[in-house]
Every structure is written in C-alpha cells, then in structure tokens.
Specification:
mainly alpha, MetI-like fold, 14 helices, 0% strand, disordered N terminus
C-alpha cells in the first residue's frame, strides 16, 4: 500500500515538473516573440539559410563560369542590369549567383567552426569547473595563454602554416575560438556544483559522468546557446577577414570574404561598387541579425526577466 502511494506521489511530481518545464518554454517563446528585432533577425537568417540550401536551384548562373554578352564577349565588370541583377565581377561571373553561393560557404564555415568551438569549450569548462584543483589550474592557464593572442592574428598565423582551404578554415576558426565558451561554462559549473541537489546526487552514489550530463549540463544550456549564437557572428567575421587576406577560402570558391578582395583595386572601390558592396552588405546584415537573435535569446531564456 505504501509503495503504491509513493509511486503515485512520484508520478505527480514528474507531471508537475513536466508542466513547469512546458510553462517555462512557453514563457521563453512569448518573451522572444515580443522582441521585434529578434524576430526580424530570425526571419532574415531563415531566408539566408533557404537561399544557401537551394542555391543550385535559385542561382541564375554558375558562380564559377564567366558569362558572355550579346556579341560573344565576356561581361567583365558589367553594371547591374541586362540579365545580371547585381552585375558581374572582374572575370565576368554573375555577382548574384556568387553572393548566393558565397552565403552557403560562409554560413557553413561559421556553423562548423562554432560547433567545434562549442564542443571544445563546453568539455573543457565542465571538466575544469567540476573537478577544480590542479585540473582547473592547468586548463585555465592554457586558456589564458590562448586568450593572450588576438583571435584573428592567431588564425592568420595558423592559416599561413597550413594550406588554405575550406576545411582548414573551419578547423582553424573553431580551434582558436573556444576560450570564451570555456570560461563561461566553468563559471556556471562552479556555481552549480555547490548546490544542494548536486550534493544529494553525490550522496546517492551517482558517478561524475551522470552528475555532469544529467544534472549540470542541462541547467547551463541557456547561456551556452546564447554564446554559441553570438560566436557565429564572430566566426563569419573571422572567415571574411581570412578570405579577404588570401589565407581563407580560396578562389574560385565564392565566399563573402574573398569577394571583398575585389575592393583592393582603387578603380573598383570607387567606380564599381556593385562588385564589393553586395558581399559587404550581406556580411553586415547577417551579423546584425545574428546579434539581434542572440540578444533575444538572452532575454527570453533569462528567468529573471518578467513576461
């Protein structure tokens, strides 16, 4: 009899916890929808993602091949119009097609790089914060050493040592961008590991892996998601800078960064703005929208913020 009553009480507690979780999720969604800039940013990013995925179907021309004019000559630096909505570049390639394919490359680099940085940072932060002592000291001193170097300078140094390629750019950006996530996760773990429910799980004999994965990691997902979103904007900027300098994504593969390299010519910079302005505007708009979404997520996932 007592056992059945205990089972019923346990089931009621689980149902209440599930209802509370659903209410928190619903409240976070309501807070996010109230942020107009965050909703606008999410819509624009969704459009960019759709364009990137459907690039082969949407692009009017090949991003790698030169286009020819009415008399069979190559359309070099042709202004917008005459079948080319954004004109052509110095090799006669359609700018709109290269912008669409460039978004696919730049967003892919940013996504993979942020995944690498997040996984590395979360793992090191969890280990450092949970175990403390000499483990924490070693990890944080390594983190401090990496932080001493500017991310772009460190990325350029590594990129010049390795052969520039799309794959290497993803790895490089990911491996030089994990420090912020590590410090963030470590601070959250230091706060949570002294909580009473963590002490209770230890007293119940649960091992460290279960405590970390079931009781600590789920409770720090909100700041991880927000930081990962903001790091995506940084990854796009880093990729653009590396490609602009010639040590990132290499031609003829289009990326928004190496398309800006056309602006190194004074003639193009002053008299042919359609060659570099679309890529620059795409970078600007994407980063702005990512920051809008990041700010919206931060406010929505903060339990201290009232509905």
């Amino acid at each position: 009899m007592n056992s059945s009553i205990e089972v019923q009480q346990t089931n009621k507690e689980l149902v209440q916890q599930y209802k509370k979780k659903r209410w928190r999720d619903h409240a976070a969604w309501k807070r996010f929808k109230k942020n107009k800039l965050a909703v606008f940013g999410a819509i624009i990013l969704l459009i960019f993602l759709i364009l990137a995925v459907l690039a082969p179907l949407i692009s009017p021309f090949s991003p790698y091949e030169s286009t020819k004019g009415e008399f069979g000559d190559i359309n070099v630096l042709a202004p917008p119009g005459d079948g080319h909505l954004l004109g052509t570049d110095s090799l006669g390639r359609d700018m709109l097609s290269r912008i669409i394919y460039g978004g696919r490359v730049s967003l892919s680099v940013a996504f993979v790089a942020v995944m690498i940085a997040t996984i590395t940072g979360v793992f090191l932060g969890l280990v450092a914060g949970f175990y403390g002592k000499w483990v924490d000291t070693v990890i944080m001193r390594i983190t401090d050493v990496v932080i001493c170097f500017p991310v772009l300078f460190l990325a350029i140094t590594v990129a010049t040592i390795l052969k520039p390629s799309l794959f290497n750019v993803m790895i490089i950006i990911g491996l030089v961008s994990w420090t912020t996530m590590t410090r963030l996760v470590r601070g959250e773990v230091l706060r949570l590991r002294e909580m009473e429910y963590i002490e209770a799980t230890r007293a119940m004999g649960q091992n460290d892996a279960i405590i970390i994965l079931r009781h600590i990691l789920p409770n720090i997902m909100a700041p991880i998601v927000v930081q990962g979103t903001l790091q995506t904007a940084e990854a796009i900027l880093t990729e653009s800078a590396l490609s602009f300098l010639g040590v990132g994504v290499q031609q003829p593969v289009p990326s928004w960064g190496n398309m800006l390299n056309e602006a190194t010519s004074i003639m193009v910079l002053q008299f042919k703005p359609w060659v570099w302005m679309p890529a620059g505007f795409a970078i600007l708009l994407t980063i702005l929208c990512i920051n809008f979404v990041g700010d919206g997520l931060r406010d929505a996932l903060d339990p201290k913020v009232k509905n």
